[in-house]
Amino acid sequence: MARIAFEALAHAYPGAAGHALKPMDMVWEHAGAYALLGPSGCGKTTLLNIVSGLLHPSEGRVLFDGRDVTGLPTERRNVAQVFQFPVVYDTMTVRENLAFPLRNRGVPAAAARARVEHVAGLLGLAARLDRRARNLGADEKQKISLGRGLVRDDVAAILFDEPLTVIDPHLKWELRARLKELHRQVPTTMIYVTHDQTEALTFADRVVVMSEGEVVQVGSPEALFEHPAHSFVGHFIGSPGMNFLSCAVEGREAVLPSGQRLALPRAYPPLRGKVELGIRPEFATVVREGGLPARLRRVEDLGRRRIARLEVEGMPLAATLPEGMPVPAEPRLAFDAVRLHVYADGWLAEGEG
């Protein structure tokens, strides 16, 4: 396993306007479980390919344990890779596929066998070890591909590029849990690329959220939910995402376009640019009295909870509807004031107090 560091790292593809990956400095610690999360085209696969050596960055350096590997090819970086679509040898058995990386490195037969059986057990492949891979479905073939990346215990890092795309939805929960358990048992630096927030938040201890080639926040799942550093993080993390209301800020108060005022938990200096108030739907509640007047658009019943879709001063907003509460004819909204955040031009404004 390795400590991976980026120094002034950036990348621009020849002929393209601007950076596909904007300049960054970042460190991934030994044996950490990291996820690169963001929509298509945000730069996460570009960053993963730079780590693996498939792509040479146009700027900056990549260091493994302090050693500059920026110019080294993939085979000299000692990384294991698991791709979106399974890569297996159909003529081999499951056991032979899993043992292939170990046999190539001269691992003794007894040690290889024990390691293969251990990983197969974690991935639910123990009963299929002696079956030919050609007779298996796409789900099980991807498990083999995952296992081939996980079976080595000498790698600097294991890189996963959207590995659950071809896995049936009902098996994804199981496989994510198995990967997490394997990381606990055999600590290895793992980097997981995905556009799915559930996959990222379930798997990773630290999530790297990316947007338009830029890293906008690195943090624990809890930090991303509780304190989004950028409005994109607030919108992208959570279901539904964070609400944003245009406002002005005067000290410890937010002033809405109508002139209504909301108390803030912190005091803010004068802010420039586009100023918004951010609140999670979980901390906005439909009430009968007090709060802000709102217009109900619809109610979404999600089984364990109901979400009210409303408008406040013409701006869309989602809020929790208390269990058993009928929708008021004239709904109003109450906010948990401690959970209110202020954003200026997309970035979280740091208040005082």
UniProtKB/TrEMBL annotation:
Domain of life: Bacteria
Family: Belongs to the ABC transporter superfamily.
Molecular-function GO terms, alphabetical: ABC-type ferric iron transporter activity; ATP binding; ATP hydrolysis activity
One Gene Ontology cellular component annotation held by this UniProt entry: ATP-binding cassette (ABC) transporter complex, substrate-binding subunit-containing
Cross-referenced SUPFAM superfamilies: MOP-like, P-loop containing nucleoside triphosphate hydrolases
Species annotation: Teichococcus coralli
UniProt entry tagged with the keyword Protease: no
The protein, known as: ABC transporter ATP-binding protein
Keywords: ATP-binding, Cell membrane, Membrane, Nucleotide-binding, Transport
Upper classification of the organism: Bacteria, Pseudomonadati, Pseudomonadota, Alphaproteobacteria, Acetobacterales
All copies of domain ABC transporter, residue ranges: 4-237
